[in-house]
Structure formats: structure tokens, C-alpha cells
Queue: 4 jobs
Job 1
Amino acid sequence: MGATAEELLEFLIDSARYGDTDDVKVAIQEKAAVDGQDSAGRTALHMACANGHVDIVLLLLEAGASPDVKNADGNTPLHWACLNGQTEAVKALLAKGASAAVLNNAGRTPVDEAISRDFTAILETINSCNTGAGIEVEVEEVEPDAAAAGSSAAAAAAADDADMEEDMEQALEEQQQAAAGGGGSSAAAELAASAQKQLNL
């Protein structure tokens, strides 16, 4: 290509970012620095992992790219793969020994990034590998019968409340009629007031 080392690196990183596998192969053949970093500390592997270009991830790893190079924020390619939900890239990195417990500048691991986005598949992938991260994923599932039972119980409770209110209203009406018929009996009036108070609770 006749390009400088800097130009080759830029070409490699851009090709990895946009998923141009053929250009990545050319850059590697031209001896581009596979672990070379741009001004933000990003490598071609960072770009490929973030965007889910697994074929390029594999090419770079086979060419000797390190899975643990950090960018300016302390993020490794695995941080970016986890943050963007790129499960296959995560698998490829872990197979090459990438650490799921390494901290970035914010004190977060790749595992933390996956948890923050609720990427269960990635957590399960990390958990299935012997990475030393100590992650165990538990996915809570609600059985259909249990959900139906809960719904039925709620409906029954609502029906009971409605029946209770109806009974109280009827009792109030009867007590008010009794009070009127009894010449303003104080006992009946007290009963009516009590019923009204309970109804308003």
C-alpha cells in the first residue's frame, strides 16, 4: 500500500469499526499494528467488539491482538462488547483469555456493564466460562399457573371488597330508616353514624 504506520493503523481501526473484513485482512498483511491505539486509546479490537463484527474479532485475535488492552477510559474490548450486548464477541474474547473482572477508570468490570443493561445472555456466557468472575445468573420466571392464581386471588379480593361495601350501604340505609321511624332514637342515630364512618374508611 505504501502507507505509513500511522496511516495503516487508522485504516485498520476504521475497517474494523465498519465491518470491512477484506480491508482488515489487507491491513494485517501490510503489518499494521494490531494492538495500535488511536488518540483515545482504542484499538481495532475495541471497534470490532463494540459493533459485533465477530469475523473481524477472530481475525484480529488470530493475528495476535491482545484482548486486554485498555483505552483512555480504562475499558477493554470486553467492556465494550458487554456494554453493547455483543454475545458472540464476548465468547471469542473469553476464549482468548480476556478478563471479565478487570476494572475500568470508573471502577466497573465488563460484568458490571452487562448487568447495567440486563444482558442475561452475556452474563450466562461469562458464568459458563472459567473466568474467575464468580458470576451466577439467576433468571426469575413466573409459572403461568402461578400467574393465573395470583390474578384470580386479586379478583376475588376485589369482589369481597365490593360485597362488603354493598352490605355496609344496605345496613346504613336500614339504620337511617329505623332512626327516622323511631322518632330520632339516639341509638339508631349512633348506629347510622358508625356505619357511615366505616363506609368512608
Job 2
Amino acid sequence: MIFELSQLCSLSTDTGRGITAGAEAGTVLVTAAREGVALLHTANQDRSHTWLLGASGSQIPANIGRLVAAAAHDERLVLAHAQADGSVSLHIYTLQAGSLGCQEPAHLQPPSSGATVISTCLHALQHTTLWSDGTIHSHKLSGKPHLDSTHQLPTVPSSAGHGMAAELTPRKGSAQREPPDNRTAFLVALSNDLLAALTWADGQTGKRPTRKLRLTVLDLKYGTVPLETDLQGWKSSGGQPPSLQACLVDQRGEQQLAVVIGRSVCTVPLQVPPVTLASLVAASSHADSSMVASTRPAHAPQHDAAQWLSVLEQAAAQPRLAVPISATVIEQASTSRANEEQQLMQDVVSLQGTGPGSKAAPAEVAKVMGRVKHAAKQKTASFEVLSRTALILAQQGHWKALQDFLTAVKLTALGSCPGLVPLLAQEEQHGLLTLLLPHGKDLSLSDLHLLLDHLLGRKLPRAARQQRREFRQELRDRACRDLQEKKAVPSQLAIAAMDMFTPREVCLHAVVAMPVDSAVLLGAMQGLLPQQALMLARYLLKWLTFHKGGPTTELREAQMPPVIVPPLRAVVQWLGTVINAHLVSLALLPKAHQVFMANMAQSVASINLHVPQ
């Protein structure tokens, strides 16, 4: 999601007080803390002030050095001030009952000559500092801060002679300069042990050197790097790179990084699952890094500018978020577009009164669907309209119209249209689930549990057998056409996926291939009966056998009819979650040792989980 910024805006704290800073204030750093207390730091060429708003004190003394970073969590607030000798003093403030108390300052020595503090973050008692040479210092704030661990941020060798180290570290022998006010790197605490670092890394477009925006997730506990990836669509060439600031927000049940890049705002969905058996197996076998964490560039949902402004403002009021900046989003929907959106929603809602038995239903449905699909193609329809359209079509039983709609429109945030997936499963519309699930995400725990309970029930849906027959015939026809045209026959993979599994299991393909949050998946698994868990485990073991020799190429929509082959990383994640959720109950089932002691051990041992980069 990308928005342009025009000016800094008002931030709301949890007590309703506000902070307002105009664009003329220069550099502004805002950090929210508990009990309605917020820190406001303003700086320009003439003066620099740090204000603590909402507490009994007003202004923090200005003779303790220049403020270079700040972080807040719960009742603690940490300020990092640069000293004349190059060291950094940490001033730890405790906010209680609206009063401000300060501990004895702690001093941090730079890890190398000329290194300066670029960013800092705080989570619980864990304080982390990023230096300009890429060194990350982690401190415990229990009593007097002491060094807990040191890590080096991964960097890419520079072929162009510029990058994070060249940009942020002074040359040897040169006079030490004051670091620029804008931040060319930023830290965000994801949890007690996980840390996200945003930096500019060297790259090259043709013969021209460029900088790419890099996101690195570090595990401070184990010293590993679960994820290191470049964010697509963000490059900088020449001169000083744009400043970086970020905060962790929750959007539609999904953790996202709201990143301020220069004068633009983008969001990066970020999922870092907790440590499970599946993730340990994948990590030890060098599996795809997306098994541990995944990011993707975000695109702006239409007409959601005002909503995202509200999200950023609410993030500033959360006690566990250090929010450096928020801004007015100027890409607001115009009045005419808003009226057009409202009229489109009214047309969609009017379909609730037209059932399949009505003579006017097909004509009216076709008319409204034409408008909705046109608006979706022009990217002027909000996700609320699109999700409401799908839900109403399913409730009224317009299956052909819903099939055409899901073919043209990809619904991603399934958590925003609750009840749609269980309704399709209850009505035995497994073909529509195959169209919907591969593109979806953030499916709620209750919807996922109801879906699995239906697909793993005792009674085999009649529609599942019919769907399997139709898919197999369609795949055979496609394979024949490929052979006649002397093309490669990727259809053989899908045909094997159909022949190897029962009709019930074929319906599970799209469910397993869908991106699911690990906590949601674990909760849905725990609600299954032991016999259902055993049935699911046997299905997943079939996939392990099928993937023997390494990961298979995933099917693409343009190549195949709607038959989904779950990737190996998803199969391993699901199998590990089933074992975590039902280890005791599965061990007590008859012949369980044949499944988990023999079959699984043999299958896992025969699989090469290495994914070439």
C-alpha cells in the first residue's frame, strides 16, 4: 500500500489528548507510551526540543546530548542521546501515575570508530540498538542495563561503492560529522526475541547503481536470520536515500509493518510463526525461507486511505508500539467516487431480495455483476463491496454468477467476509472453494475449523465425487491437447494428484495450499476429533511420499485447470501442526505406530527438503 504524504498530522493518545506538528517543525519523532503520555521531539536548523506530553513534567533537559533515537513499551521510555566523545547515553524513564522517574543513565560505547546510533527499539525489558556499521547491540533493562548479545546485520557486498556502510559510516581519517536527521535504517521489535530491521542495500539496474529496501528478521535468542528479502517496488538511486521509519500494526487480523519511506507510506504483511515441529524440521533441512516467515509487497485497497490514516493514529495510542511518525493521507476518495461506491453497494445489497426462483433474478444479477466486475477491473471497488458481493451471491445460491465473479476477482482477505467459506462447504460447492482458497489469507479460526470438520466428516459429500470425475476428465482432455501441440505436459502432475487421492482428499488440496497463520492453524487442529486428525495425517503422509526426491513445481493458474498441488513447505507445516495438536490422542489410537513410527519416519527420511536458491 502506497500513499503520498503532505504534512504531519495529529496523533491521538489513549486518553484523547493529541499531538499536532506542522511541516515546518522539521524532524519530528513521536513515541506513544501508557497512561496518555507521549514523547514529541522536534528539530530544525535553529533548535531542538524534546517534550513529554501528558506527564507532570513538561520538557526533558536539553543539556544531555542530541536525541538520536527513542523507544517505548508499557511504562518504560528509553531515550538515546549522542555524546561529544561518540558514545551514547541511555536515559530510562518510568511513567507511573502520570509522573516521570528517571534511572541512572547507561553509556554505550560504539562498536567501531565513528559508528553512530541509527535506530533503537524496546520490547518488555529487551532494548536493541542499531549502529551505523551494521552492529546490533541487545541489552536487558533489568536494573542497570548490561550487554546481552551482539549481532551483525547481514549486508550485501557493494559493487557500486555506496550502501548502508558507505552511507552511514564516516571515512577513516575524516572528521566525525553529525549524522543526518533522517533515518536510513530502522528497527522494529516483533516480539521478545524477533527483530525486524529495515535498511538500504546495494543493487544495480542495468549499469546504474541503485539501492534496494531490504527487510531482515533476526532471532536474538538463537542468533539466526529467519528472513532476509528485498521489498519490491522500492529503489533509490544516487544521493542520500530516503529516510525510513516503521511501526507494527494489525490490519484485518494480520500483522503488518507500516513503513514510512521518505514522504510515502507502504505496508508489508509479515507473518513469523511460532517455533513448531514443522518449522524446526524445515529450518534444519534448509527449506524455503517462506516456511519461517513471508513478506510480500502490499497494494492499496481502493478507497481505504481514510481507514489507514485511522490505523496509523490508533497505532500511536497502543502501549506496546513505538510509533515514529504518522501523516495525513492526501489520496482521499473524491465525493463523486464516494457516491458511486455507495450506489454500487446498494445495488449489491438489493440482490438479497432476488432468489434463484425469481424470474427477474438472472437479469438483475447479471446487470449488477457487470457493474461490480467493471469496477473491480478499474480498481474503483473497495474490498468491502467485493466481499459483500461474494457473500450475498452465496447466500442466494447464484452459483454460476459466483463462479464467474471468483474467476474475475481474487478475494484475499477472507477474514473480512466471515461465513463465506463454511457456507460454500455446507452447500458442497467444492469447485468454488478451489477458486477462492488459493488466493485467500487470514481465514479465521472458526471458519477454518468448520471447513476441516466438514471435509473430514464421516459422510462423503456427493458433490465431491462428481467434482473429482469432472476434474479428471478435464485434465485428460488438457493432456491430450498438450501432446497434440507437442508441448510439455504439466497436466501429468495434476492427474497424479487426482488419481492418488480419494474424492474427500482432493477437496483438501486447496485448503492445505492456502496461506494460514500458524496460531489459527493450531487452534483449528485442536478442535478436530482424534479420528479426523488421523485422517488428515494420513492424507499429508501421502503428499510426503508424492514429493519424494524434492519439491515439485507448483502449478500456475495459466497452465492448469483448477486443481491445486500443495507445496512441500505447506505439507510439512500442516503435518507438524497435526502432531503438535494431537500427539497424545494419536499415540493412543490403534495402529498409530504404523502411521507415525514407520510411515512418517520413512517418508521424511526419503525426502530432500533442500530448496535451491
Job 3
Amino acid sequence: IVEEIIVNDMPDNECGPGTILENNICILDQRCGPGTILQGNACVLDSTLVKSSSTGYTKELIMSVTTALGIAGVIGIVLAIIARVNKNKN
């Protein structure tokens, strides 16, 4: 009687960085990253113009600075009133 051992945990063929597995052989990865295209044997920047969408935080910046200055002004007025009251008591 021949006993066969079935091994299910054998690792698949894996390729190193910059290579992909094709037909059970590791070959150079010919794909390029985002914003680049393959020209010849090199990835170069894509020359098509991409319109950037600015989110425009100007309004939020103005509102936050105005609010901060307003709060600082109110605190300054309250402290000035407290100082005047203490001055009049003495």
C-alpha cells in the first residue's frame, strides 16, 4: 500500500518587486503608476493636462479668523471692565 501525502499549504510562485507572474515565469512589470504612461521601455509623465479641483477654503479661513478675533475682543473687553471695577474699588 502506497500512502500519498497531500500538501495544500504549498506557496504559489511569487515574484519579486517590479515583476509579475506570467505563464509561470516572472517577467518585468510593464505597467506604469498613476500619472505615467509607458513609452518604449520607460514610464514617463503623462503630458495630458489635468484640471485640478481646488476646494476653496477661503471662506472657511475668513470665518474662523473673524470668529477667533471676535472671541479675543470680547475677552479683552471683559478683562478691561474687571480691571476698571477693581481700580475704582481701591
Job 4
Amino acid sequence: MALRLVQANFKARDDSALGRFWVEALGWVSRSGPGATSVAPAGFVWTDPDASACVDVIAVSNPETVKYRVHLELATTSASHRTELVARLKELGATPADVGRGDVPWTVLADPEGNEFCVLEPREIYRDTGPIATVVVDCADPRAMAHFWGEAMDWTLHGVTDDPALLRSAEGVGPYLEFLRTPHLKDVRHRVHLDVVPYRGDDQAAEVARLQTLGATLADVGQGDVPWIVLADVGGQRVLRPRSGLTRSLPPPAALDAVRRRAQTRNRRTTLP
């Protein structure tokens, strides 16, 4: 049994607007319903083992107040490509972000909702990832996170140290997953989380039990009666595990409407600091 990373889930005041930004930024397509927008490569299917991780945006009323633990890093193929991409992203509404890293070869921007992301300089390791080079997770212990996720998914470890740890799909497709040591992490409600999906035919209850033996814990975020399970990994990062046998390409409008209603319910129950 194993899981695959299928998407980074963002929260936004205006999911449609943020979805349009990421469609233009990544060159992908979107499908929207009331309060939810999915952004993915054309033909994306969650259960396809060759599918790349995508972006899901859910509307919430809470304003952005904290730095997310998860951010995206975008790949470029040349210095000119990087320059052109940064300029285009700014035209789309991205703004420069100062995260105190000083003189670095990459550019840090914030999308129209304030989510920080990086545009990397050309790196050989990311030449075949597609537009997203890495999904980066801030954490206190990269080794522990790499061990957990290496066991939870069938992804391959590409380097584990006390600072960064790097994994990628065993199929060698899509972005890397990087765990970056980050001091002084705050224990706040995570408005970005990772969604994972099992392979077709795997038993949900058995998979959840397996994750718990690895150190995951069940999490109640007010999700109510839904077909997926919410857990927290060993670093406290929330993970949504969809039910087994999920075959849809992008969420249909009815499902997106249900997501919107659940998100609104959670917003009434929880206030961000």
C-alpha cells in the first residue's frame, strides 16, 4: 500500500481570481464551482500514477495573517526564461516578497492572496518537473518528516540531511517534495495542506491505520461527514487522504459546492490568529 501526493490545497478570499492567476502562471487549466477552483495539467486524473501534483483553491472569509508552512517553487529553463516569467507573474498580480534571505539567486514573490512562492534559477535537477519544481514544507525535523513521508508514499528519497530532505515520485514525474528546516514554527491553523490519494483498490481504513502506525494522528477541522480523512503528519502538517477508488479528473461542480459549504462551516467555527 502507498499514497501519492496529488495537490497542494490553498485557501483564498476569491478562489476564482486566485485560480486564474495560477492557471496563467503554470500554463494549466482549471475547473471551478461555487467556492472552489482546481488548477491542473490538461487531462489530469488523480489515480493516474503518472499524474503531476496540482493546485486546489478553496474560498474562505478569513484574511491572510500568517506565513504558510507550505509554498511552491517554480522551475525555469534559462536566465531569460526566469526574467520573463518573473515579469509576467508581476503583470498577473504577483508582488515582490522580502523573507529576509538576502542576496539569493531565486526570486520570492507573493500571489494576489499573499501566498509566498519562489521562481528558481535554472537547475538541472528540475529540468523535467514541469512548471512546479518543488512543493516545500517548513518543518522542525526534516529527517523525521522524510522518514514518515518516505514510508507513507511510494516516492523515492533523493537526499536527506538535517536541513533539507528531498523526495520525488517513484515514476520520476512532477515536482519534488522538500522538507526544509525552519526555526520558530508557530502552532497555527494551516491554510495550506497536502492532499494525498491511494492507488486504486487500496482499503481506506487499512491505509489510515498504516499512517497512524507511522506517527500520523487524526485531526478534526470541522470537516463533518466527508469521504476523506484528515490527519496530521509527524510535524503537525495537516494531510487530507481522499477515499480509495477516487477516479474523477477534476472535482465536478456538485462536489465543489459541497466543499464550499464545508469550508464556510469551518470558518464559522475557527478564527485564525
